[in-house]
Amino acid sequence: MRKYLFSASFALFVAVTSVSLAIPTLPAVASTIKYVVNDIPITTGDIQHRAAFLRLQHRKGSASDEMIDQTLKMAEARRLGIRISDKQVDDAYARFATNNKMQLAQLDAIMAKAGVTKEHFKEYIRAQMAWNQAVGARYRAEAGGTNSNEDVVRKMLDKDGNKPSATEYMLQQVIFVVPAAERSATLGKRKREAEAMRDRFNGCGTTREFAKGLIDVTVRDLGRVLAPQLPTDWAEQIKKTKTGGATPVRETDRGVEFIGICSAREVSDDKAAQLVLQSEGNGDKSDQLSEKYLKELKAKARIVQR
Predict the structure, then answer these.
(1) In sequence order, what E strands does 44-134 have?
(2) How crowded is residue 142: how many other Cβ atoms within 10 Å of its Cβ?
(3) CA 150 → CA 68, 232, 278, distances in Å?
(4) How far from 45 is each of 27, 41, 119, 235, 303, CA to CA, in Å?
(5) Does residue 210 have a pLDDT over 80?
(6) What mean pLDDT comes out for the span 105-134?
(7) Smallest Cα–Cα separation from 246: which of 180, 147, 175?
(8) Is 91 helix (H, G, I), strand (E, B) or coil?
(9) Could you read off the pLDDT of 24-56 as tens digits, one per residue?
(10) CA–CA distance, 297 with 306 (Å, rounded to integer)
């Protein structure tokens, strides 16, 4: 199972830009332990924040049940050795703000006014990312690392034998390396350098020439990448960028990066068909597996209400 098929998704969220900053700030209430799940406490404060989050999304549901589920998911991810760093969470939070055309301070204010808090939202993001990885690992284990050609053929027959197409990209990755020890001191400067180079980008043929005079800049030709194979954290920006252009600059664990789009064309060969057809049903499969996995965890869990 390819990683992108279980990527973190924020499709559950409503556009929070519709929420007025005039929302009255909810009063702080002393927090006590409400549940203990496998020796992990869930407080009344946790449940209040989740209830506020549900209201913000205009979504029905039990805040208590959601916090129990989230606790079980995070515990299972830790058991599997899955760790989502603070930086990964912060980057996802920032992308959510950007995608909703907000500054971080505005998103922080909305979360605070609604009674959610940015900390609670970020822990929700961390849990979603960790659980997606856990479900992906479970899928790969159950699938035995094999692809079902029989399923692909069946889907093609359902489409009257027509092969689906996919966009084939030739990509170039440009990394302005920032060592971890120097990150706080040099990240801003390196980002400005990357943005200056990105502004001059006019195709993949001249990138290495531009990079020659720069220190610690890596240029990688990524080769043929089909749309279903694009990493989820880059996919949206790559698809929006015209051939010969480059994506916006992003901070990553390696430093500061952007992706150049060398070429893009529609292809309909066997590999493209297989990727497209395999991806079409995987959303349902992942949802079913996630539900089954969580049900198993609940059956074995010790859940005590105080």
Answers:
(1) none
(2) 9
(3) 39, 27, 11
(4) 11, 11, 12, 36, 18
(5) yes
(6) 94
(7) 175
(8) helix
(9) 555 555 689 999 999 999 999 999 999 999 999
(10) 21
Contact between 177 and 255 (Cβ < 8 Å): yes
Sign of CA dihedral 46, 51, 56, 59: positive
Q: What is the DSSP letter of 25?
A: P
CA 68, CA 303: separation in Å to the nearest integer? 8
Residue with tokens 């990312």: 129
Half-sphere exposure of residue 305: CA atoms within 13 angstroms, side-chain side = 5
Residue with tokens 């159950």: 142
Q: What angle do CA 68, 8, 230 make, to 5 degrees?
A: 165
What one-letter code names the amino acid at 145? G
Q: What are 120's two structure tokens?
A: 């609670």
Whether the pLDDT of residue 261 is over 70: the answer is yes
Tokens of 290: 């996630």
pLDDT tens for 228-237 read 778 878 888 9
pLDDT of 3 higher than 50: no
Choose between 110 and 18: higher pLDDT: 110
300 CB neighbour count, 10 Å cutoff? 8
Count of CB atoms situated within 10 Å of the CB of 196: 12
Counting other chains too, the contacts that 58-66 makes at CB distance below 8 Å and 24 or more residues apart are 58/14, 59/12, 59/14, 64/34, 64/35
- 132 residue type, one letter: N
